């Protein structure tokens, strides 16, 4: 879709903010084709050679495919350490990828992706950061504001009398007028926002333990140590309060005497630091170069260089690298660089873990605010979240999407609580007026969630009652216009609703519930997801 007259200049000005605020040397804005929503046309760009930027792209481009799948902003700074994107971008060779890195992509999203912009390279030659991502999202919001003001892509400004800052997903058909929220819903949302704002929500103190993400970071960085001249073994050992943990990388298979020699040299170094402890044997041994070469013998461990790994809150971690000969000065410098990279990777993983903990704490506060408590609603949401996590792991959903799904599951019915939930939840046959109120709960919930968990989670809440055939609510989205995570949540929500007893009915058996899922495939549920869900449950 090409811009309306007068909009082109405004878009050029907004795109220039990518240069001013983020420092991107290159920025390009693509908008969706009206007749082919997964095809995007270039409408504005800065910094590119016009002959080297495509005028039209589609899902055959790896970055665009990732954007369509995630429906969320992301950045890729390097090929080697972005394994998820290496798989997704496998159609391109590494040289072509390097020409596009670092890149940051942000979708223009309201129910479907109506466009996106891609940023490349920074003036100061640094990589893109989460802070850049947040700035880019604000710039994308300015583009969407322009679209809303002009009614593009079916977007319309919210009614002036509506006090909620809720941006709806775009419905697949035109509606003359959006349904007004009930006064109860409006009042409840404002009250919920005030309660959440008053809560002192902080992350739990970091425990003395290595998280799964940190161990994964060790496994990704450690093999690089074997590029040091003369190195034979590299390992990271935890021997402090975090508990025993030992990840090792080796050039080939290690003989038992060689392993004992290596561990004894590490133990001597630790004792010199007045740290009496047993050295654990490796939990994991990596062989990035294979095991076909000559086995590592004690003679290949002439020198072992040890260094403490600095990680806030987790003492007793050491990096140890064995060498076949005495070290050269430049090898010391190279190892120091690798050590800093390892520490940075561990801190980044720890920050990601803390963020997840904080967001889940916030989700819990949304479920159980100080003014009311509904244990049955909390139990239902936690059951759905646990099942959603199992489902996400079973189908291989990426970690970021999995975390969003879990958060969305925890708070998916938070919008019911302000809508006289105690009355609505305990009656089987509700009048149409009450059913209409229930159909507002995704919108109410999204309004509560967005200010504290963000729109990436709020959109899951907003769409979790949409049906695959387009007969759901609140916006009658259909098929893949419904976010993947919302389609998954809809299945998990339905399953828990059927298999947990209600005050007005008994729980259904596993067999009965599976039959309902099968009957609903293609109408209520995504048929492909329904099949995989049945496999998981069965």
Structure characteristics:
5-stranded mixed beta sheet, 6-stranded antiparallel beta sheet, globular, 18 helices, single chain, Beta-Lactamase, 538 residues, 13% strand, alpha+beta
Structure description:
- The protein has a six-stranded antiparallel sheet, with helices on both faces. A five-stranded mixed sheet has the order 9-8-7-11-10, sandwiched between helices.
- The protein has helices spanning about 5-20, 60-70, 85-90, 95-100, 130-150, 185-200, 210-220, 255-270, 330-365, 375-395, 400-410, 420-425, 430-440, 440-455, 455-465, 485-500, 510-520, 525-535, and strands spanning about 25-30, 40-45, 55, 75, 105-110, 115-120, 230-240, 245-250, 285, 305-310, 315-325.
- It starts with 6 loop residues before the first helix and ends with a helix.
- The longest helix has about 40 residues, at about 330-365.
- It folds into three domains: about 5-155, 2-Layer Sandwich (Beta-Lactamase), CATH 3.30.450.40; about 185-200 and about 370-535, Orthogonal Bundle (Hypothetical protein af1432), CATH 1.10.3210; about 210-350, Beta-Lactamase.
- The radius of gyration is 27 Å and the shape is globular.
- The protein has 18 helices and eleven strands.
- It has about 550 residues and is α+β, with helices and mostly antiparallel strands.
- Helices cover about 45% and strands about 15% of the residues.
- The relative contact order is 0.08.
- Helix 14 packs antiparallel against helix 15 (about 455-465) and helix 17 (about 510-520) packs antiparallel against helix 18.
């Amino acid at each position: 879709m090409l811009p309306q007259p007068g909009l082109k200049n405004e878009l050029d000005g907004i795109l220039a903010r990518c240069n001013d605020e983020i420092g991107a040397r290159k920025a390009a804005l693509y908008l969706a084709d009206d007749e082919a929503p997964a095809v995007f046309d270039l409408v504005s760009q800065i910094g590119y050679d016009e002959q080297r930027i495509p005028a039209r792209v589609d899902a055959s481009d790896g970055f665009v495919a990732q954007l369509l799948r995630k429906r969320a902003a992301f950045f890729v700074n390097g090929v080697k350490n972005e394994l998820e994107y290496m798989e997704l971008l496998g159609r391109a060779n590494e040289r072509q990828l390097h020409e596009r890195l670092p890149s940051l992509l942000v979708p223009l999203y309201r129910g479907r992706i109506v466009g996106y912009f891609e940023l490349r390279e920074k003036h100061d030659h640094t990589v893109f950061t989460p802070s850049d991502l947040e700035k880019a999202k604000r710039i994308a919001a300015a583009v969407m504001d322009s679209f809303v003001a002009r009614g593009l892509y079916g977007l319309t400004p919210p009614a002036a009398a509506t006090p909620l800052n809720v941006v709806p997903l775009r419905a697949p058909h035109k509606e003359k007028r959006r349904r007004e929220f009930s006064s109860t819903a409006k009042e409840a949302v404002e009250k919920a926002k005030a309660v959440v704002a008053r809560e002192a929500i902080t992350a739990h103190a970091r425990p003395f333990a290595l998280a799964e993400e940190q161990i994964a970071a060790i496994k990704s960085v450690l093999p690089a140590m074997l590029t040091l001249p003369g190195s034979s073994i590299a390992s990271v050992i935890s021997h402090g309060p975090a508990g025993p943990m030992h990840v090792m990388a080796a050039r080939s298979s290690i003989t038992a005497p060689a392993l004992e020699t290596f561990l004894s040299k590490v133990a001597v170094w630790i004792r010199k630091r007045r740290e009496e402890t047993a050295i654990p044997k490796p939990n994991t041994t990596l062989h990035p170069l294979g095991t076909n070469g000559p086995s590592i013998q004690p003679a290949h461990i002439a020198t072992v260089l040890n260094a403490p790994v600095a990680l806030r809150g987790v003492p007793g971690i050491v990096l140890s690298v064995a060498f076949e000969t005495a070290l050269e000065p430049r090898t010391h410098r190279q190892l120091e660089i690798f050590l800093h990279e390892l520490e940075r990777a561990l801190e980044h993983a720890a920050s990601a873990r803390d963020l997840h903990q904080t967001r889940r704490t916030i989700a819990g506060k949304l479920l159980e605010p100080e003014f009311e408590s509904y244990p049955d609603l909390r139990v239902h949401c936690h059951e759905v979240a646990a099942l959603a996590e199992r489902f996400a792991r079973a189908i291989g959903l990426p970690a970021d999407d999995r975390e969003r799904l879990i958060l969305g599951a925890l708070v998916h019915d938070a919008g019911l609580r302000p809508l006289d939930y105690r009355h609505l939840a305990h009656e089987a046959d509700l009048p149409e007026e009450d059913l209409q109120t229930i159909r507002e709960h995704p919108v109410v919930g999204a309004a509560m969630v967005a200010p504290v968990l963000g729109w990436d989670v709020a959109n899951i809440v907003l769409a979790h009652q949409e049906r695959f055939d387009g007969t759901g609510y609140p916006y009658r989205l259909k098929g893949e216009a419904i976010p993947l995570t919302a389609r998954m949540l809809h299945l998990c929500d339905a399953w828990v609703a059927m298999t947990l007893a209600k005050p007005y009915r008994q729980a259904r058996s596993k067999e009965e519930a599976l039959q309902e899922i099968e009957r609903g495939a293609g109408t209520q549920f995504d048929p492909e997801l329904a099949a995989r869900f049945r496999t998981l449950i069965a």
